[in-house]
Amino acid sequence: MCTIFIKRCTIMSRGRAIYFIIVVVAIIVIGSIMYTTLMQRPPVGEHGPVTVTDFRGKQVIIDPSKVDRVVVIGSYWVETVCVLGCSDRIVGVDKYTPYNFYVPESVKNVTTVGSVYSGLDIETILSLEPDLVIMDIGYGKAEEYIAQLEEANVTVIGIFCTCFNDQIKAIEIIGKALGADDRASQLINYMQNWYNQLRDKVKNLSTEQKPRVVVVSAYALVKKGEIQLYANTSFGKIVEELGAINIALQEFPSEKWPKINEEKLLSWNPDIIIFLGSSNYVAQAVNVSVTQEPWTMLKAAKEDRVYGIVIYNSKGAFLNWGPRIIIGYMQMAVVVHPDIYSDLDWVFEAKSFLENFYGITLSEEEIASSMVRP
Question: Taking the model in full, what pTM does it have?
Answer without folding.
Answer: 0.87
